Amino acid sequence: MHQPAPQPASKLPIEALLRPRTIALVGISAKGGAGANILKSGQRFGFTVPTWPVNPNVDEIFGHRAYKSLRDLPQQPDCVVVSVPAEAVPDALAEAAAAGIRSAYVVSEGFADAATDEGRARQERLVALARAANMAVAGPNCMGLASLHYGFAATMADIPAEAVTGGISLVSQSGGLLNSFAELSGNRGIGLNYLISSGNEAVLEMADYIDYLADDAATRVIACILEGAKNGRRFRAAVERVARIKPIVVLKLGRSEFGQRATLAHTGTLAGRHEAFAALFRQNGVAMVDSIDALVETAALFDLTPLPQDDRVVMMTVSGGATSLIGDLGEAAGINFPPIAPATNERIQKILGVNRAFGNPLDTVGLPRLRKEGNITAVAQALLADEGVDVLGLVLGMRAGGWDSHQELIDRLAEAAAGTHKPVLVVSFMSNSLTRHWRGYGRARGLALVEDLERGLKAVRHLIDYAQFRRRLSARPRAGGDPGDAQWKPVQVALDSRLRRNERGKSKILTEAESKKILAAAGLPVTREALAQTPAEAVGIAAEIGGPVALKIQSPDIPHKSDIGGVYLGACTPAQVQEAAQQVLDNAHRNCAGAAVDGILVQEMVEDGVEMILGMTYDETFGPLVVVGAGGIAVEVFKDATVLLPPVGRDDLRDMLPGLKVAKLLDGFRGAGPRDVDALIECCLRFCDFVVASDGRFQAIDLNPVFVRARGQGVRIADALIEMRGSEA
């Protein structure tokens, strides 16, 4: 069996780019422009990393000595920032490579971003030069780089004066959105480390940056603004490694058709299937958000709070109506608000002087009652001592200018949070309420403050999901199907047999019978069946199978058999089988004249079961994607399905199934008993292993319907279609 080679991590000297000891600027002018802005950015840190302008025409630029060439510098720099016109970039890089410089930032535009043949060819030359010199090149078409922790900047980005040092590093394929992220973080007093603009990613890609940041001790959370991935497998490998070390929060652009076109126009990068990225992130605990605000707030929550032990959340507030809003938005975000344990409930009733049980979300019956005699401390301690509480939050309508009552509550909550290993946070109902008085409070006191209730609850859900992912690592990963395993040899034999028989113009479409032979060889539960050449043979096969049978025309030229009358269901007697076989043959010859007919598939009837679809489609970015969902004839109408990136584990599948609408039918519905979900999961696991082992051979696989029968009776694949890929056909 064939399988693409694994994707190794980059061996380019990226540390010279991200931790430079000295920087050279090529293309800088005293008249202004990109190079001048980059030089000025270093002033923020007092040029603790020496930065040398290179310009053969002047002696000084903005008070800095200018050097005639790279050879004239006091010492060899680690990094050169190139801001010359696009056509001059190759010569500038060649000079840097000849001088032994190991890394470069190319801020110049006019490469693949120009969406012209000339621009794409120019970018190819840049890549070839960088590879030949083993040079870590960022960009082109990027804003540059800054690190607040390590104290250097070589960037055109607008780093606000209010920006503060912290544990969040951002890698962005959009320079403009990088500015927005930095501005909002500065307004909120949220601490940052790296701000990296990756541009076109001609040489270094998003995968390289996040892989480096995984081992950077000053980075606790990695935030990404992502348009697409040039090498999906390499990006996936980086995400899977990094997510096991520290949290990743991603704003994925290009989810809509318009967004994908804009992404291609912006950087020349295909956005890729949104479902594939969503599957990768979901399976690795990566928080995928939908706005700059959510990116900042979610990253800040990860930065300041420990991971919870489970998903049980208690949210306190000071208004009865507010508990309804918290409950509504919490349910939409997937938050679990369990009942408060009786003993804890009674303890809180005594503290607050209330003679009734509290619900969750918890209404403290007014703010004064919570402030009285330090009650907030006692309530928080009671809840944090309860083993049934994993996350504690206080939701208030925070005043941007501050308020003594809020100050007292939050100060005391910060003290309580300092003595626990559980996540504690404050959520403001509104946006733009934490940018003045409360700016930087969370970082200073170690208590997460989150703006906007809806975003805050979603951020809590992301925190819980990541914690669950990390807890499950001990049970992972399933390696998937190794193409060299002896178990896959029957599949290879079935494939080779089919290829030898392929004398029909190299058709890429396999018939159902051919497809099921391969699937059966892979150990998948297909129906009992055999191929008949004549109606008389069909009668004999039906007798061997016993019971009602289905008869289906088999032709690589007729993939949708029922559309042309090529399927007959429920033939019982020999006469019915004979007549039905002749009927499907006649329909095929009449409605598809000239189609190559292999025969009639005689198949056991499977009727009692929930119809599911199990399939694979080959994505040029990530490779094979597996689809699981509701099947049958309405599959394209309801589109009740989810996408997975194989290999997957049982936990992935058990987490996925409840999100499907068809899950209600699997659990038992309107008198029908529960279905064999365990057998469905085993079938999915086996199918995913088969997909991994045969990676690159198939363009698409469609198993529909897959009947999930009553509990204990297993599943049956009633229909199947395989499309070969490329030269494999």
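(the above was protein one; protein two follows)
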Amino acid sequence: MAVNNLQRQELNELNDVTYQTRRATVPALEEILYDPIPILDHGFVRVVDYMGDDNAIVQAARVSYGKGTKKVSEDFGLIKYLMRHRHSTPFEMCEIKFHIKLPIFVARQWIRHRTANVNEYSARYSILDKEFYIPEPQHLAAQSTINNQGRGAVIEGERAQHILNLLKEDSARAYDHYQEMLNLTDEGETLRDGEDGLARELARMNLPVNFYTQWYWKIDLQNLMHFLSLRADAHAQYEIRVYAEAMLDILKRWTPMTYEAFLDYRRNAAQLSGKGLEVVRQLIQGKKPTREESGIAPREWRELEEILQIKLS
């Protein structure tokens, strides 16, 4: 159950209320406001609040760059100019707040992005639900032989089933022991009369990092795009990438012109070193540069081949 009963009640109450405002709103984002988007087996991401839109970016930029026209095409051109030349301040004028439910090990990767405001569910104060992440069989992969933080081939057959059984059994056992230490049942009733339960801040340490946590995460548009450029990338871990991909769709709804510029100049673009750019120039001139002549390290050379989608000499 991604959303518990109290959260469902809160969602119903929020959706029953409509506010009048003179602030800019975005109809496409309003359509999904408050609604949880399911992620993984028990997770979700939902928009709680936002401020600004594409027009807010243009408005902030024109304070710096002077007046100019207000045609949509020229607004889009300005946004592309800002993105292309990495003038980031106007994008910081927009903010968005998410409510996210995610496995703890994903949260520990996520929190490395230190440019957001975060308030996380407290397992010192509250009791964690019996919800833990178990990968789908197609995502159960072996360790990569060329990347220490990546995956290799998918594990199949009896070995895969054995691993899944271990994950499920260990997680269930850990939660059973968590309840035993708290001396509480699923319904919050005392297990054994006359016995003290262990403090919640201590009992939680027995739970593995595939258990779910929740937080409110507020960030400006510029730093959201930086997060998405890293975490929606094909090289990102699947379990955080699926959250980023859902948030990409939210970005498209919220600031469609910025979204298109982001795809063109960030997500679908590539950055080359000076030596890499020189290799491209030589290729255009019909030359056949070698890695040794270029002075580029083997790994960067392979990355350049991947970007150009050609086999270099």
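Reviewer note on protein two: The longest strand covers residues 43-51.
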